[in-house]
Amino acid sequence: MSTGVDGIALPGEADYEAAAEVFNLYAPLRPAAALTARTVDQVRAAVARAAAEDMPVRMHSTGHASAAARPMDGALLIRTALDAPVDVDAAARTVRIPAGARWGAVADALAPHGLSVAHGSSPTVGAIGYLLGGGLSCYARTTGLAANAVRAVELVTADGQVRRADPVQDPELLWALRGGGGGFGVVTAMEIEAFPADSVITGALFWSARHAPRLLRAWRDWALDAPPAVTTSLRIMNLPDLPEVPPALRGGTVLGIDGTVLCIGGDLAAAQARARDLLGPLRAIAEPLLDTWQETNATAVLSTHMDPTDPVPILGDHMLLGGLDDVTIDRLLGLAGTGSGSPLVLVGLRQLGGALAVPDPRGGVLNHLDAAYAYSAAGVPESEADTALIVERCNAIRTVLAPWDTGRTAPTFVDNVHQPQGHLDDDQVRALDRVRDRVDPAGLFRGDIDPGATFRPVRQLSMIMQNGDR
């Protein structure tokens, strides 16, 4: 592909490097050419050129999911970073999000109106990619999957035209886009529903992991019948001795429990009671090293999980679990807790259930998650030796958790291209293929699709370094 037109750049050029930049430094992207699109017209022109030259098209915005991206050999990568504002309609309780907008900007735009949306746990994640993958929110047990709130999608399809998919105009395409795994076009904007969130109770508690056996059991037992207004996660963490890490959490294995209590109908007293029911028994088990739980505004939720804000190398694993028993907890802590020598920075369990477990008739192809917990693990590989240790430990944990593995996954949690996603069944895949054939008959965007997206258990991670695919 020739360059110099429409901002398309080749490897070695500054514009190429900027467009191909990723958040996960362990998984760089090396397409044949790349473009940062600032306008819809730029997207249309790039798609038209790629189609004319028979060149596959791929896309991203913030690059958080680069490790799960299909190979981009010979492809044109379009980084969507549209110069358009986040537009809030407070009366209708909707927000229009341009491609490239991050959750921090969306939350800031909504806050003056006392509104929020089912965003994730990091302010730096791109909203569009998160929503296309279902979206497991900090409010998920109240709201369900974030994609269920999407009411319209604007995209450029393989013919270079701008389409709008909503309940009236092409509802089938709207259904397919929400959790369908890609291959439909370049999304340029979404409209989603917001909800009232004048105040929330959010924060995190951290303890030395020597208290983990009692704390993990207490949290699990509470989670069995917890109110859906509360969404929490538990993490076992080995944090580096860096200035950005709170001093109390450095130099040893810690266990943290964080989350959000939404004030349903503005009933703060009820929210406070729910927070006490969760936090009181945990605080009674042991004195926390750090306690940040507080009543605050909705924008603070994005800092609760303390996700990294700068690019880092990440390698990990994920599965959805049907439950946990005491034996599994003990074996898990033996691999990730105090004295385990774990090379993993974190091993986490996100609480599911509530509205997440209920199929939403207004949702897309992925409209619920039928599991009790979303398990994830992550290490920071800085060498081949680190990679081997991380993969070995992830495989050991996967073996321990295997009795509870549902074989399903949450798309935005799968960060390893060698671990196929398992969120769709065969009938759903066939239905999605029919939509793709209609909107992209030449297969311009087919490279986006994971051929292993259908439901099947995955028992072992691949040794990624064996074939040099990073």
Report on this model:
The chain is an alpha+beta fold. The protein has 12 helices and 18 strands. The protein has 3 domains: 64 residues, Uridine Diphospho-n-acetylenolpyruvylglucosamine Reductase, domain 2 (2-Layer Sandwich), CATH 3.30.43; 127 residues, Uridine Diphospho-n-acetylenolpyruvylglucosamine Reductase, domain 3, CATH 3.30.465.10; 214 residues, Vanillyl-alcohol Oxidase, Chain A, domain 3, CATH 3.40.462.20. The strands form 4 sheets. Strands 11, 12, 13, 14, 15, 16, 17 and 18 form an 8-stranded antiparallel β-sheet that branches. A hairpin with a 4-residue loop joins strand 4 and strand 5.
SSE order: HEHEEEEHEHHEEHEEEHEEHEEHEHEEHH
Number of strands: 18
What's the helical proportion of residues?
25-40%
- The third-level CATH topology of the largest domain is Vanillyl-alcohol Oxidase, Chain A, domain 3
User: Nearest-angstrom radius of gyration?
Assistant: 22 Å
Q: If helices are DSSP runs of H or I spanning 4 or more residues, what is the number of helices?
A: 12
| Low-pLDDT runs | 455-470
